[in-house]
Amino acid sequence: MYVTKKGNEKFMDKKRVRLTVAYDGTAYHGWQLQNNGITIESELNRCLTQLLGEAVQVIGASRTDAGVHALGNIAVFDTAAPIPAEKISYALNQRLPEDIRILRSEEVAADWHPRRVKSRKTYEYRIYRGAFPMPTRRLYTFFTYHTLDVEAMRRAAGCLVGEHDFKSFCQAGAQVESTVRNIFSVELLEQGPELVLRICGSGFLYNMVRIIAGTLLEVGQGRRRPEDMEAVLAACDRRAAGPTAPARGLTLVEYEFGEES
């Protein structure tokens, strides 16, 4: 940020600041502003406006749904405030609720936009397996008492890697220009009683990861065959896939950015 002069007046140029945001989404109506509840975006706007003394509207990279968590979602905003970009995280965390934290704040180019750059997003969907639910994991995992065939789930998940039309895994009615997405990797990791679906891609459709999780759970329970996943993809019909798994098991764990797209 720098000061320009015009006659005897001084004008403070704005800088663009990028935030890395972690949050527990349990108490929020998702990321995006809503008329009927508090969201991550509304809390960021409120606290930034208080801190900087100017109206602030953040632009988010990923509009996570109600109940979904994040270890590193991304937001940017413009400000003329003199506080250094790298110091904003410290001051903002003093004002935010304790279930939202800024892990990093940094200045970026004035035209940098989180949804106009090439990116890789990684999500994890956590499934808790046991005879009974674990109370301390109830907000962060989906519980099942079914014995799951993990190898069958892995074979089914392998069909998703690559560029495909994922219309079958998109919530009906979603407004998107294209339902084609590129999935770089899909893993199923066993961590004690938890089975973690870890999926990395260039982008995801509305409820896509949760529908994939719901479909893979049906495979694990023996209600679908692993090879059925190819037919589900080819159908390009939401009715061909399984149910949408609950939001609480889903976390956006990592965002990586490349060049402008």
Average pLDDT, rounded to a whole number, is 93
Using only CA atoms, what is the Rg? Answer: 21 Å
Unreliable runs: 1-11
User: Would you report the number of β strands?
Assistant: 12
- Give the SSE order as H and E letters: EEEHEEHEEEHEEEHHE
Biggest beta sheet attributes: 10 strands, mixed
**Content of β-strand:** 25-35%
Percent helix, as a range, is 10-25%
Tally of helical segments:
5
> What best-fitting shape do the alpha-carbon axes yield?
globular
What does this structure look like?
The chain is of the alpha+beta class and 261 residues long. The protein has helices at residues 40-52, 85-93, 150-158, 208-220, 228-235, and strands at 3-6, 9-12, 15-23, 59-60, 69-79, 100-108, 117-129, 142-144, 162-165, 180-191, 194-201, 250-260. Strands 3, 4, 5, 6, 7, 8, 9, 10, 11 and 12 form a ten-stranded mixed beta sheet that branches. A hairpin with a 2-residue loop joins strand 10 (180-191) and strand 11 (194-201). Helix 3 (150-158) packs across helix 4 (208-220). The protein is globular and about 60 Å long.
